[in-house]
Amino acid sequence: MDRLSVEEYRESDKTPLVVVLDHVRSLYNVGSVFRTADAFRLRGICLCGITARPPHPEIHKTALGAEYSVAWHYFAETEECVVWLKKQGYIVLAVEQCEGSTLLSSEFKVQSSKLAIVLGNEVRGVQQQVVDLCDGCLEIPQYGTKHSMNVSVTAGIVIWELFKKLKVEN
Q1: Would you say 156 and 124 are in contact if contact means Cβ atoms under 8 Å apart?
Q2: What is the Cα 29 distance to its own chain's centre?
Q3: What's phi and psi for 53, nearest 5 deg?
Q4: Using CA atoms, how far apart are residues 83 and 71, in angstroms rounded to an integer?
Q5: pTM of this structure
Q6: The domain that contains 102 carries what CATH number?
Q7: Is 77 domain-assigned?
Q8: Structural domain tally of the chain?
Q9: Is 128 a member of any domain?
Q10: Is residue 142 part of a domain?
Q11: pLDDT for residue 97
Q12: Do the Cβ atoms of 100 and 137 come closer than 8 Å?
């Protein structure tokens, strides 16, 4: 299937997108995000707060080895991570339903070649103090009775949409 080796992956050009996991408690969700990040060759993942770090068997169960290919960093506080990313020139966007959020659809235009998205805890979402530090909020339009989705599903949707925009618009 002409797949890259881990070494080839690490040396390859990356999509200029970083995922920040803000206190994500499920190790299976963490592993799933690693696997999606690998699929779209993201620059990396930032694991913050209580978010588990590799190596861990439950992360590996859903990551299937992507935790070895995708670069990752750990921060005790998500705010520290957001500041670090901004210093590197990233536009940091919380994926959250909030006043003034931008719908992740044709409404959202990529304004930078370096993006980071913050995904929050499965119950509480992105911490308000983190939202306040971000450059804006992205929201996935939802039309049912529920107004939230699993964090790894959300990651897949947002990563795919931003991947398409970054590849076409830059």
Answers
A1: no
A2: 11
A3: -120, 150
A4: 18
A5: 0.96
A6: 3.40.1280.10
A7: yes
A8: 1
A9: yes
A10: yes
A11: 93
A12: yes
Q: Are 29 and 153 in contact (CB under 8 A)?
A: no
Range of the domain at 71: 6-169
Does residue 1 belong to any structural domain of this protein? no
pLDDT at 60 over 90: yes
Cα–Cα distance for residue pair 1/114, rounded to 1 Å: 30
Compute the average pLDDT of residues 12-21: 97
**Total number of residues shown for the chain:** 170
Q: What b-and-e string marks burial along 33-64, b requiring 16 or more CB atoms within 10 Å of the CB?
A: bbbbbbebbbbebbbbbebbebeeeebbebbe
Point out the least confidently predicted range of 28-32, 62-66, 72-76, 143-147: 143-147
Q: Output Rg (C-alpha) for the chain, integer angstroms.
A: 15
Is residue 105's pLDDT more than 90?
no
Mapped onto helix, strand or coil, the DSSP state of residue 104 is: coil
Residue corresponding to tokens 């881990």: 6
What 8-state DSSP symbol labels residue 144?
Answer: S
Q: Which two tokens stand for residue 63?
A: 């990551």
How far is the C-alpha of 150 from the C-alpha of 21, rounded, in Å?
13
Q: Is the pLDDT of residue 169 over 80?
A: no
Which token pair is 35?
């696997």
Which has the minimum average pLDDT: 32-36, 47-51, 112-116?
Answer: 112-116
